[in-house]
Design brief:
four-stranded antiparallel sheet; 3 helices; 17 strands; 14% helix; elongated
Length: 252
Amino acid sequence: MILASLGTIKCEYVIARGRIVAESGKLLVSLEKDHYPEHMCHTMRIKPNLTRRDFRIPHQGANGKVRVRAMNPRPPILVAEALVDVPVVDGSLQMVPEEDVVKVAYFNRNREDGPRFVGFLKGFGLKSGAIGTSASWDCYQLVIVGADEDDMALVGNYLIENDGGIAVLDKGKLLADLPLPIGGATSDLPLEDIAARLRLIQRSARSLGVSHPNPFLALQTLSFTSLPYLRITESGLLDVRKNQILDLVVRE
């Protein structure tokens, strides 16, 4: 690779095996399509039968309000802890999208009966719909954020049926997606198509109210346990500094 300047990292030429294969941003050769083993392309073991009940958060106690821990994304990829009060209705904790408190779910996709956890997210900005991905750092499990449990279930089922990817959905309608059929983490589409789909995903997320400057990056790093402070896992909310799983409900 030949660069005009180290300050801009703008590639002038790419040379491979003694040939110029790209010049001034244009590919000069045709690329062979890679073929992947079958076992790498069907890695979503969980069945596509999620319903809104899979996103229910049970709570024993009378109707009213309780204080819970919520994940609070801080750009670019830190996640702080926020304490928020959420309603208890008929034995389950409710999200409050109008107060920027939505649900976040983690599903282990490696087996049908894999562990799962549902918690809360504060400060993401989502007002409607749901967004999900199987390309979550660095566990590559299914992570879904939503302001509606039906849309969360639909996004999850869509990703499972399509062997992984990223998807944005609102009121039952798919707004944008990027298939990631190779291990649930990698696309087999041309780079131009990937870039266009990612741009549409970002725009679609923002159209639903997401305020984070990079919605997809925020989503896929909610499970990244190598950075502070609060991360979602299949066992619950992890305090990275203490290496401790925290209770969702704050005990007074």
